[in-house]
Sequence to fold (306 residues):
Amino acid sequence: MTAHSKLVLKSSNKLFDFLSDLEEVPCGLPSSAALSTTLGVSRTIVQKLIGILMEKGLVRQDGASRIVLRRPGPEDYFSEEDGSVSKSDQVEKLVLRKLSSYELKPGDRFSELELAREAGTSTIIMREVLFRISRSGIIRKHPHQKWEVIEFSPALISEMTDVRRISEDYAVQAIQGLEDSDPFWNKLRELGARHRKLLKQKQIDHSEVRQIDLDFHMALTEAAHNRFIRDLYHAVFMLINFHIWQVGYDRSKIEYVLEHHLLILELLLARDFEKAGLEMQVHREYARTSMEYVSRILNGEEIKDS
Fold:
């Protein structure tokens, strides 16, 4: 993955806005000439933008045509800081995107060289990135062999739930000591507004739910101001998020998650920490049973509706 100029990043965001307004997807991507006119950039820049679209899985090549596969989600947009992101960080985003989109799925094996060629980087940088990601438990390296995306077991699910309980209980206790003027409270209000907006949408993309789920949990843990808990929790939650969303959930289950987030946010804002802690416990149990449900499906078990 090459580092991009601020013009390319800004133009990418404009292109994402354009694609978000498409009436129907999948559909054909407009020609390079048409995009050049629409965005007010050169065709050289447009070719770089198309490369970004394909890298993000928004567009695929179909013979001589390019097909828009989905509308952009919030996680696709570039921030102002992305222009100065290191090569290593950019490569890490690429690998995580392949994992979260299930291009790389549990049981798959891959080599550093394969990914390095795809990312346009060195095997040294790729190896560094993969070892960094491996701390989350999503992937592991076999001695003298390829990397592997891990498969879940009941014991692993139990261990992750224990780490969540310890981290989240600590975070709720820490939140109780925050001053009313702490920026954390405004962050909670903003998260609440985002949840309400998402619930009003006619269609909710899974990528949007994954992102707001991560933002919700990380906001709570970061309030503890303990980098060790934050980093451990982030690694475990990445693993949980990755596993749960391998199965498509219907609208009712998505709404349940979002509405339960809202309930916890409202309890915290009302300073009802005892109830907030109890609801976090309910939320963890729902995540645990969801992971077990996903594992059963991935193992080919027949699931009967309860």
